[in-house]
Each structure stands twice: as C-alpha cells, then as structure tokens.
C-alpha cells in the first residue's frame, strides 16, 4: 500500500526581555516584515503571527511582547500575552541579547524565568543567543552556551545567531522541524500572517511614532484606523494617534503641525512600499486620558480581549 507523506504543523513562540530582537527574528525567518521593530524597548504590544511554509510542513511563529516588570495595565496585558503564548506553543524560542551584560540566568525578568515556566508546563526550549554580530570575543559565548544547556531539562538547543544579519536561519528551521507535531496546515499556503491590512497599517503608523517621538511618548501612544477605503489604484486611510495628555498631543502635532506631517509622510512611504498601492493617509491626534492603565480603554484600543 502506498504511504501518505507525513505533514507537520506546529506553533513556535518567541519570548524574551524587551529589545532582545524577537520581532527582528520573526521578520528574518519570514523574509518579510510582519512585526514592527525599533531600537526602543516595549515595541511589540500583542502577539504577532508569522506563517512559514516548507516542504511537508507549516511552522506558525508567534512573536510576543517583551517580558518585563509592570505597574500599568497595558504592560500587564503585554506580559500576559507573552506568557500565554508558551501554553499554545509546541516549541519556545527564548531569546537573549548576547551583547548585553544583564544576567539573564538570575534576573527576575530574565530568560531564566521564562525557561523555568516552559519547564513547568512541559514545553521544549531553544535558547537563542542573539546579536552575536556585536560580540567581539566569540569564545566567550562557549561557557554561556554550556550554562544554558545545563540550566534545565527543557533546554533542547542553544543557538548563537544574529537575527539582524540573518545567519543560521535555515539551520534553525531544520532543528525546529523535529518539534512540529504531525497534522494538517492550519492556514492557507500563501498566508504570511493573520493580521489584516488595517491592523498592519495601525502598527506601521505606531512604529513611525515610536521612531519619531521621544521620552515617554512611545509608551503613551496608540493608533486606531477609523477609515480604510480602497480602489484598484489607491487607498485612502484615516487614523487616530491616541495619547494620554494634552501636553503629549501638542508634542505629537509639533510646531504648526510639523511633527504630525512628518509622521504622516514617513508612515505613508512605508505603506506604499509595503502594499505597492498609492496611499493617502490622514492622521489626527486625540487624547484618551489614562488609557494605558484602564482595562476598558485597553479593550477599546484593541490591547485586551
Ligand atoms: N546588532 C544587532 N541588532 C539587532 C539584532 N537583532 C535585533 N537587533 C536590534 O535590536 C533592536 C530591537 O529589536 P526588536 O526586534 O524590536 O526587539 P524585540 O525583542 O522585538 O523588542 P520588543 O518588541 O520591544 O520586546 C532593534 O534596533 C534591532 O535592529 C542583531 O542580531 N544584531
Ligand atoms: Mg518586538
């Protein structure tokens, strides 16, 4: 009797402290940008899904918000979104910034805690030592690799890599394949993510805000898309940039509207590059007092189920 070839489909969660390169890794694996990236911590606020098709498999990656200490409800929702991804995963990639001096083994919000969590609920882990392009003495990584390998029985692999430079990704996919359970594909073959173009647009505008604004503003900013209309030749999009206070609104607008114009132009260029369609983007700034610490507001802005 002819045997049916085995198909595998599984979920791989990417966790780690803020700014270690989780979203960069997802984008590099997908060879497309589906998750926003900035040099500032706490960029990702929700789970972002990326789907990788391969011969005989589909690998579903979940990028998560950075694991960090929180006081506000927004940060709590972010950390909960990250931790809950462990339970949904067949394999967890725990990322560490190999160029950073934080002791990830003992830091109360470090990778060690995440590995222990995976151990408790029986999820295999690959510890990924990222940003090795910044590590001059590569030999210094050897004792760290050994320490992670001995840290927990959940750790199945310790892989040095540079998500930004893209080294070692095909080898990583080969290692991951063995952890994908047998099962049919969960998403259509050509899908790259489950985000809608509207959601991607909101994230691109928010990424632009984080890159253009300083101090507490990246953390006080949310973006909603109010209108998204399209014809074959052009898109017309209206969005709102939400902040917490009037003083913040004034900064986002800038002198005679210079900052909001700059944000709009930069985001518009990104959108045209991303979707290949002429795009009009209208942005408005509004104040939503205390939205980062209020569950109802978080729900309204899409940060809580
Ligand atoms: N040199 C170097 N920089 C990297 C590498 N990977 C990521 N980065 C940079 O690190 C910064 C943070 O990257 P992100 O991918 O946004 O990090 P993240 O872990 O998703 O951060 P949060 O979403 O805030 O938790 C960005 O400036 C990236 O360009 C790497 O391999 N090497
Ligand atoms: Mg991120």
- Hetero ligands: guanosine-5'-triphosphate, magnesium ion
CATH H-level superfamily title of the largest domain: P-loop containing nucleotide triphosphate hydrolases
The termini sit apart by 48 Å
Find the count of extended strands (DSSP E, 2+ residues): 9
Cα shape: globular
The helix-and-strand class reads alpha/beta
Number of DSSP helices?
A: 10
Secondary structure: elements and pairs:
Blueprint: E1 8-16, H1 22-30, E2 48-54, E3 57-63, H2 73-87, E4 91-97, H3 111-120, E5 125-130, H4 141-151, E6 155-160, H5 169-177, H6 197-212, H7 217-220, E7 222-230, E8 234-243, H8 246-253, H9 258-275, E9 278-287, H10 295-300
Parallel strand pairs: 1-3, 1-4, 4-5, 5-6, 8-9
Antiparallel strand pairs: 2-3, 7-8
Residues 16, 18-24, 37-39, 41-44, 65-66, 130-131, 133-134, 162-164 line the site of guanosine-5'-triphosphate.
What is this structure, in a nutshell?
It is built from ten helices and nine strands. It has helices spanning 22-30, 73-87, 111-120, 141-151, 169-177, 197-212, 217-220, 246-253, 258-275, 295-300; strands at residues 8-16, 48-54, 57-63, 91-97, 125-130, 155-160, 222-230, 234-243, 278-287. Strands 2-3-1-4-5-6 form a six-stranded mixed β-sheet, with helices on both faces. It has a three-stranded mixed β-sheet with strand order 7-8-9.
Polypeptide structure, described:
By secondary structure, the protein is an alpha/beta fold. It is globular, with a radius of gyration of 20 Å. A hairpin with a 3-residue loop joins β7 and β8 (234-243). It has helices at 22-30, 73-87, 111-120, 141-151, 169-177, 197-212, 217-220, 246-253, 258-275, 295-300; strands at 8-16, 48-54, 57-63, 91-97, 125-130, 155-160, 222-230, 234-243, 278-287. It folds into two domains: 8-177, P-loop containing nucleotide triphosphate hydrolases (Rossmann fold); 197-300, K homology (KH) domain (GMP Synthetase, Chain A, domain 3, 2-Layer Sandwich). The longest helix has 18 residues, at 258-275. It has a six-stranded mixed β-sheet, with helices on both faces. Strands 7-8-9 form a three-stranded mixed β-sheet. α6 packs across α9. The chain is built from ten helices and nine strands. The model has no long low-confidence stretch (mean pLDDT 96). Guanosine-5'-triphosphate is lined by residues 16, 18-24, 37-39, 41-44, 65-66, 130-131, 133-134, 162-164.
